[in-house]
Amino acid sequence: MENIIDKIVSLCKRRGFIFPDSEIYGGLANTWDFGPLGVELKNNIKKLWWQNIVIQRDDIAGLDSSIIINPKVWEASGHVSGFADPLVECKSCHTRFKFDDLMKGKYGEVSMKDGYPHCPLCGGELTEEKKFNLMFKTFLGPVEDKGHLAYLRPETAQGIFINFKQILNASRQKIPFGIAQIGKSFRNEITPGNFIFRTREFEQMELEYFVKPSESKKWYRYWQEERLNWYFNLGIKKEHLRLREHSKEELAHYALSCADIEYQFPFLNDEGWGELEGIANRGDYDLKNHQEHSGKDLSYFDEETKESYLPYVIEPSAGVERSLLAFLLDAYHEEKDKNNETRVVLKLHPQLAPIKVAVFPLLKNNPELVNLAQKIYQDLKLSLNVLVDYDEVGSIGRRYRRQDEVGTPWCLTIDHQSLEDKTVTIRDRDTMQQERIKIEEIENFLRKKLTNV
Ligand code: ATP
User: 247-259: buried (b, 16+ CB within 10 Å) or exposed (e) per residue?
Assistant: First the structure.
């Protein structure tokens, strides 16, 4: 298990899932680009979340708000004053540390003087704690002064709160109802790392679910269960996920309660538990602050009771890259085959798999086999609208292995019998079993498999 992350990083690079960014210029630390298969996997995760949260329900509406928004939003939300980590810097070697990390023992036992820690690297004296704002700053227009200062959003959630009233009016929703958004967020993290676990640019899938204050506890539990089941249904093993309720001390100032869905990553702290998604009961903190700062009424009028109130909000907030990493880790298997050779297979849920099916002609120099294989390949791509691969290079065994390694659930081989009886073999990635299937039945077979989650 120890070097599984190295294996995954190398597989991701070799097969086009994830590349180190700007590699031809020596890279940019902790920055990654998603290659041809990575972008498919990422899109599938986002699509499945969106289908589950927006499309298949009638109480949640979608949104795509701007990344750079009025900076007053971040003052109202508390991000300008509060979104900061206390940092210390070593006066000798100038390394910066998160003060919390030092005190929590991330760097092992640190020598102390008068109750204050010394540099874990060189033993030097540390500066006083200084707050460091995690928001990226930029300027709108050519003048770089305070009046033109703006921020890249550090979360997508605030875009939802500032659109709350407009969405309510446009969609005629009644409470309880939610607004969902997927998009990029930016945080000038002090200690990025662990592959794509913590980066400065990442994507979030966020839902703000507005409820009656008296019902917020019920909905808080409801969303915890819903979200856990989403991961389980897409193949994350039960023993690798847990729900961890925050203690009172840990709770962010805006949250009435908060729980993290944690995945057991093989590379983090001793036991590996790291946050995949936070689910918070934020009360009316956000709407109340925006109402105060904007001077606009953001309350909800209940037609039945004829009362106006500020709804409470339950927020399940998930990271796309962290779930992608968890899906990859859970899918990665090494197995010995009958010749004692290692088979690497990504047992990704078919709905997540970047390539859904691969088509092989048994021999590449037989035009009849190649033509039929090409026809099946082209037809499936268009009729199913999914990524299909075509491969005629090397032995069939090698071609299966190439697909196993990137998680393709099915492979179709067109052989001599196919020309006679219009059947092909379909091989299952996980069981490696092969069956014959009529060419005319392939599309329906795959369609069924790909629509049931
Ligand atoms: P952490 O404690 O790990 O910094 P957080 O509690 O600050 O995370 P939230 O603000 O709750 O994170 O954001 C919701 C989700 O967004 C997280 O659960 C995570 O999946 C994702 N996320 C947050 N920061 C990052 C990051 N720097 N890189 C990748 N994903 C992130």
Answer: eeeeeeebbbbbb
